[in-house]
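User:
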Amino acid sequence: MARTKLLILCILAGGLALPLLNCGGSAHDPSEVYYLVTIHTKIPYWQAAAAGLEQAGRQLKVRWEMVGPEDYDPQGQKQAFQKVLSQHKPTGILVSPADPDLMTPVIDAAIAQGVPVITFDSDAPASKRLMFIGTDNYGAGQMAAKIVARELQGKGNVLIFTMPNQANLRERLHGYEQVFRAYPAIKIVEVVDIKGDPTIAFDKVSDILAKNTPVDAFACLEAQSCAEVAEVLSRKQIKGKTVVSMDTDPRTLDGIQKGYIVATIAQKPFTMAYFGTLVLDQLHHNLPPSLGANWAQDTRAPVPSSIDTGTTLIDKSNVDKFLQAASGAQKGN
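Assistant: Predicted structure:
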């Protein structure tokens, strides 16, 4: 019991307890290697996650690597995970499942081999993953929906861009739907699957404007679509549409500065990957008796089922300060 309490304290301390409590376990071995398996590895969101992974790896003095397809390819992500598991003897794996149904069997295979797996950003709740670290996506959807409702003054047509296979995006959509129930004059006229290709949003908005289709607001449940929406509106010099995004793609922030995007809900991919790596390290050095136990139903589980890393609302009032802070943080690295 004392060991379990120490593990929980080390995890919740986010690594700060390492030098203070020693957190049990042995010294780090340079052969330890932690993998982050994601998708769209080249986009800014995942580069921020890679930076969190790197910082944790340097702090722990272990090896790290981010792997996955450069373009949206759920099968490619599964193959990358399988390759890590079969060829590289991972100490622990962080994974953000693009398709939870596709990833659940390989996550379970890793657990069966004694490799700790934590999901982050997007979950695979039916898998045997040990815990989820990321955004309260239902809450993020509600936050964004309230902005849309405020800007529309409770009345208007909304088009939503998403990728419906992802569990986190489904939760965001549910958040939108729940808020809009209080506004019967707000209608979701269409939910568009961008299939990992944000240019689908560009083409859709171009078509809507060409046909003069009555759409008052565009809501993007992922990181890239609203930059495309803003690009179309900018080219046609159309303002007055309500556009609410997710995350901090540089083009999204530029759209806020120029007045084509009202706001974005910023997540913390750096924190997710940084903290997730520290948790994996603690699990490796304090390995529970059985990784395959049903921890979600276990009232004595050594880790929580999920950790909410929080969100930040960015709009015209604070976008410049956000960019200045981000620039300072990059220079500090």
